[in-house]
Amino acid sequence: MQTIKIIFAATLTAIFFCLGCMSEAEEMQENVIISDKAQFPHQELIVYSSPAKYSYEDFLHDVKILRENYPTQIQVLKLCDTADGREVFDIVLGDLNGENQILIFGAMHAREYITTQIVMRQLCESLNAVGGNGDNYRGVSAAELLQGLTIHFVPNSNPDGVAISQFGLSAVNNPALRAQVAAMSDDLEQWKANARGVDLNRNFDAGWYEFIGAPYPASERYKGTFPGSEPEAAALIHLTQDYHIKRAISYHTCGALIYWYYKQSGNVLTESQKFAEEISRTTGYYLDDDYTAVDAAGYKDWAVYKIGVPSITIEVGAENGDYINPVPQSQFNAIWSRNKNVVYATAYNLKFE
Ligand SMILES: [Zn+2]
Asked: Cα(72) to centroid of ligand 1, in Å?
């Protein structure tokens, strides 16, 4: 757990004070969806205003609000520093020493940043549910489902890359990195990698050595110099290994399907399949087990094959049949309606199946 440091309140207060300026997202108050039973301060949370680009600063703003309102329910862990001076945060609901822990993360691929909003909403709704204000899932109250579980929410696992896709070169702080990024792509909106040009979902030790991809740092499909070479990927590796992670979800776009298989066998195969079937049941997404049709060396591949943690990749954003990246914000409501119960379905699977 050496790479993980608990951020104390005083430090965070100082950080967030500097980020307290009005963001673009705060000015966009469209498509507001608020849970009927919401108890959390949704009016103050930018994620509930559904901005077209939910930025890193917006995310930090919302984390600060949640910490202020739920000081005993959540812990905010800093997982790593990024090359361009940002940080990856894990917002933890529940006991860090608990036996049954779940990991959900978004935006590993930069242009797929709409998934940060999905995971943030799941965090907020889970806080709501723990407070006794959630709905039922398969006849069990959300509060009972989450009882005794620990959930790690990492909404933005690639903040440098997300900033590049959302705002282009002007978002790159470091001049040397900015020049490298400019040389790697002239269509930065489609950027998938981190700021160093490493595709984080090709940076895990499962088929890594066989995977060819891009020969040099690029906007996508460059696997890095060794598995876990990037701090963002290493952070997820450490997190998964250091805690009792029993289920993991990696959110991506664009599709309406669930990848769940990568050569795992035995109990992990059985548990992975049941897990995927439960998520398919609540989302309506179809299951895809053809790992040969997609690139290897992803998080899910490593988790199921190398360390035996039932894990899935959920591809969202094609609910209406359109395949567009970045997924337009107009798709958010359709995505959310399919994914609002994913945390509860994961808990149900872990506890009862
Ligand atoms: Zn992706």
From this structure: 33
Rounded Cα distance between 231 and 296, Å, is 19
CATH architecture of residue range(s) 79-163+229-352? 3-Layer(aba) Sandwich (3.40)
Distance 11 CA to ligand 1 centre (A): 32
| Domain coordinates in residue numbering, the chain | 79-163+229-352
Distance, in Å, from the CA atom of 63 to the CA atom of 97, rounded to the nearest integer, reads: 22
Six token digits for residue 28: 């966009």
d(CA 272, CA 294): 18
> How far does the centroid of ligand 1 lie from the alpha carbon of residue 108, in Å?
7
Q: How far is the CA of 315 from the centre of ligand 1 (A)?
A: 8
Q: What are the φ and ψ backbone dihedral angles of 80, each rounded to 5 degrees?
A: -170, 165
242-285: per-residue pLDDT in tens? Answer: 999 999 999 999 999 999 999 999 999 999 999 999 999 999 99
Distance 252 CA to ligand 1 centre (A): 4
Rounded distance between C-alpha atoms, residue 158 and residue 220, angstroms: 13
From the CA of 115, how far away is ligand 1's center (Å)? 10
Instruction: Determine the average pLDDT of the residues in 64-68.
Output: 95
Compute the distance from residue 295 Cα to the ligand 1 centre, in Å.
Answer: 10
pLDDT tens profile 281-338: 999 999 999 999 999 999 999 999 999 999 999 999 999 999 999 999 999 999 999 9
Cα 228 to ligand 1 centre (Å): 17
pTM score, whole prediction: 0.90
- The CA 107 to ligand 1 mean position distance, Å, reads 8
